[in-house]
Each structure stands twice: as structure tokens, then as C-alpha cells.
Amino acid sequence: MKIQANQIRPGMIIEHEGRQWTVLKIQLIQPGKGGAFNQVEMRDFRSGTKTNVRWRTQDTVEKLTVEERECSYLFADGDQITFMETESYEQFTLSRNVLGEQAAFLQEGMGVTVDFLEGSPVTVTLPPTVTMRVVEADAVVRGQTAASSYKPGVLENGVKVMIPPFIEAGTRIVVNTVDSSYVERAKD
After folding, report:
1. Residue 188 in contact with residue 172, Cβ under 8 Å?
2. What is the pTM of this model?
3. What is the fold of 130-185?
4. Taking a C-beta distance cutoff of 8 angstroms, is the pair 68, 114 a contact?
5. Whether 48 contacts 64, CB under 8 Å
6. Which CATH architecture has domain 67-125?
7. Is the dihedral of CA 50, 55, 57, 58 positive or negative?
8. For 178, which DSSP code?
9. β-bridge pairing 67-77 and 50-56
10. CATH of span 2-63
11. Is 127:111 a contact under the CB 8 Å cutoff?
12. What percent of the chain lies above the pLDDT cut of 90?
């Protein structure tokens, strides 16, 4: 199905130059002179290579139809991650490259949405937020105002995140899985 380039969204599967790509990020750029264009970062899900492509907003691209299935994360073995379809209980593995940085947020039994193209899994969508424990947090520097100051912290999965000064090591927080940002303190 053909769509205009300004309708491309992260997570879509598109065809470009005879290959299938997963859209990772989009940035609309409006220069002072000339027409607006989309800067699209995407990954070839067969080879794992990334590329950036610019399309004018009026250009058209081929969007591929995918089948969404609810699955559960089971375990990781090295570079391979195993999932199970919740309806058929069928198991399949994907390379860690398919998830990229989001793979760090997988938790045992976590429900995810997997997109299948022509019977093969191509993308995995995690829940928008997860609850994680902070294992390292820098001390608060006296004199900083609470309005805009954040300090570095490390989560139990090793991901570094900027956290407010009142969060200490051992605190459970809610983290955005897309950009690894702090959302709120978890309610225990």
C-alpha cells in the first residue's frame, strides 16, 4: 500500500530499494528555504544494517502489511532471544539486533507485540513503560534547584538513566522503554 512520506511512523515496515526496512526514528525537517522533508532512520530486518533516508513530504513509499501477534518473552541465550506466541504456544527466536537498545528492558514473562511479515517475525514492540530498580545513584549536590536538575543513575539492567535528585539507590522507578527516560517513582 502506497503512503505519503509524511505518514511514516516508527515501527512501520516499508519497502525501499527492493529491501524491507523497519522504521526506527523520524524527524521532520523544515528548512528556511525549500520544502519540508522527513529524515527517516531505518534498519533492514534481514541483515540488521541501518540507514538514514530523506524523503520530501509529498513522496510516496510502499508500506508493507504485517500481522500483529501477542507473544511473551521467555529467555535470552547469548545473542538470541526466545519468544512464545500466547495463542498457539509456538516458540521462535530473534536476534538481539531486532530489538536494539530496548532488549535491555525485557523481563521474564513480559507480554510483547510481534509483527510478522510473510510468516516471519520482523519487529517487537515492548510495553511503553517498565518498572526497574535503581542500583546506583549519584549523591545530590547541594545548591542545585529541583526545577531542572537531574542526576545520572544506573538501573538493575545496566541502563544509564537521568533521574531526579530525590531518587536514591534501591528505589523502584517507571522507565520509558522507547527512550530510556525516567517517568515517575513506582508505586509499591
Report:
1. yes
2. 0.73
3. OB fold (Dihydrolipoamide Acetyltransferase, E2P) (2.40.50)
4. yes
5. no
6. Beta Barrel (2.40)
7. negative
8. T
9. unpaired
10. 2.30.30.30
11. yes
12. 26
